[in-house]
């Protein structure tokens, strides 16, 4: 399993929708660079289907799951560009999203907002 810890929380869909495209690109590029810097060469040469679990440790919870997923839209794109996913379609990855408060005991950066991405290889359907 590959575990990446990205600094900062994913925005909500409401925040993401009101953000200028240049700022969205900058955030997605930052996620791509953080992911690439934490992955090994073997992790970046993926040719298989992967399960992806995205856990957002947040200052406040987003009560609406769709709002969480929509705000994290750029993260699978960043993982694909980093080489950790072949494609972000259902044929190549199965993505699940979780949100927790940053005070949660499993937070790898206690007291700080972050996003944890866990990737695991799956057999192709």
Structure explained in plain terms:
It is built from four helices and four strands. The chain is an alpha+beta fold and 125 residues long. It has a four-stranded mixed beta sheet, covered by helices on one side. The protein has helices at residues 13-17, 21-38, 65-71, 74-82; strands spanning 2-7, 49-58, 93-101, 114-122. The two termini are 19 Å apart. It has one domain: 2-Layer Sandwich (60s Ribosomal Protein L30, Chain: A), CATH 3.30.1330. The longest helix has 18 residues, at 21-38. Helix 2 packs across helix 4. Helix content is 31%, strand content 27%.
CATH topology: 60s Ribosomal Protein L30, Chain: A
Tell me the CATH superfamily: Holliday junction resolvase RusA
Structural class: alpha+beta
Which segments are poorly predicted (pLDDT under 50) over 5 or more consecutive residues? Answer: none
Helix-strand string: EHHEHHEE
Cα shape = globular
Number of discrete helical segments: 4
CATH architecture level-2 label: 2-Layer Sandwich
Q: Give the CATH class.
A: Alpha Beta
| Largest sheet descriptor | 4 strands, mixed
**Total number of β-strand segments?**
4
How many individual domains? Answer: 1
**Termini separation (Å)?**
19 Å
- Fraction of residues in helices? 25-40%
Strand content: 25-35%
Strand order of the largest sheet: 1-4-2-3
Radius of gyration: 14 Å
**Mean pLDDT level:** 89
Descriptors for this entry?
single chain, 4-stranded mixed beta sheet, 4 helices, 4 strands
């Amino acid at each position: 399993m590959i575990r990446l810890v990205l600094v900062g929380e994913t925005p909500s869909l409401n925040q993401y929708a009101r953000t200028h495209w240049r700022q969205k690109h900058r955030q997605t590029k930052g996620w791509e660079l953080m992911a690439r810097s934490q992955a090994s060469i073997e992790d970046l040469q993926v040719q298989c289907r992967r399960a992806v679990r995205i856990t957002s440790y947040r200052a406040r919870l987003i009560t609406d799951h769709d709002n969480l997923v929509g705000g994290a839209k750029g993260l699978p794109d960043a993982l694909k560009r980093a080489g950790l996913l072949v494609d972000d379609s259902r044929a190549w990855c199965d993505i699940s999203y979780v949100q927790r408060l940053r005070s949660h005991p499993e937070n790898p950066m206690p007291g700080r907002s972050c996003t944890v991405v866990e990737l695991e290889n799956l057999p192709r359907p």
